[in-house]
Design brief:
3 helices; mainly alpha
């Protein structure tokens, strides 16, 4: 939700077409990767709480429910 590419992670296409390029970049930019790791760890420490997990799950499920094109009945 709040993770940003090139700040917290190296973005890779969903079809993995740029995986080789991403790995090469990481191997050639160790200092930047270490910074990314530190930022990601700081993010996890700030947001990896049970309250955040419950809130995230709630909002995620609400979003999925809004995408349904039929009524679910119990």
């Amino acid at each position: 939700m709040r993770l940003r590419p090139w700040v917290h992670y190296i973005p890779v296409d969903s079809n993995l077409r740029n995986m080789t390029a991403a790995i090469r970049w990481a191997l050639n930019n160790e200092r930047d990767v270490r910074r990314m790791i530190r930022r990601t760890q700081a993010f996890a420490e700030a947001f990896d709480t049970s309250d955040f997990a419950v809130s995230y799950t709630y909002h995620l499920l609400r979003k999925y429910a809004s995408l349904l094109d039929y009524r679910v009945e119990a």
